[in-house]
Specification:
Elements (H helix, E strand, L loop, with lengths): L1 H11 L21 E4 L4 E3 L8 E7 L3 H7 L21 H9 L9 E8 L8 H11 L7 E5 L7 H4 L4 E5 L5 E6 L7 H5 L1
Amino acid sequence: LQTARKERSSKRFPLLSNPSSWPPVENRPYPDMELINQDGTTTRLSNLAGEVIIIQHVAMNCPVSQAWTGANEKDKKAYGLCFPSRRIKTFTDTMKEFTGIDPLNSGINFVQIIYYDMEGKNPTLEDAKAWADHFDLRTAENEYVLIANEKMAGRKSNLLIPGFHLIDRAFVLRSDCAGPLSKRNLYNHFF
């Protein structure tokens, strides 16, 4: 079944190889990519097509990225030497509060793409594993921590951090709430 699913997605969504297709554009198919996840295996985004996908764009040293991921929770603390933005709840808690939907129990795939490690360099598999362990993110629970490749780092990706993309079941970007100058406000558009 997974092989057939992979073959269908590779025919429908070409892999991201054209830099002009980045960053993603609202109401267009999301650029497909294959990235290594926290378990060390390859995850192809389009293999999640048919289900709702939420992508969080992350720099590990970003105070807002840390807060959205859970650094302000009672039983958690910041990852590394970072002071998370105060009064920001986790994305999961915010979604529950505004929509009543628990993304962890609704079949939604939660994907974090890490562009930078704590020193602002390209992240490694060890970074992704440590981040996922720290914030208790598990692929078995549809929570993926993906490592951006070197080609993805740069100005276009920087403008996505911190922030979120909502991809519908047809693999189309429906809401762009990414970056400091995001097109949409997370609270009144995404939710």
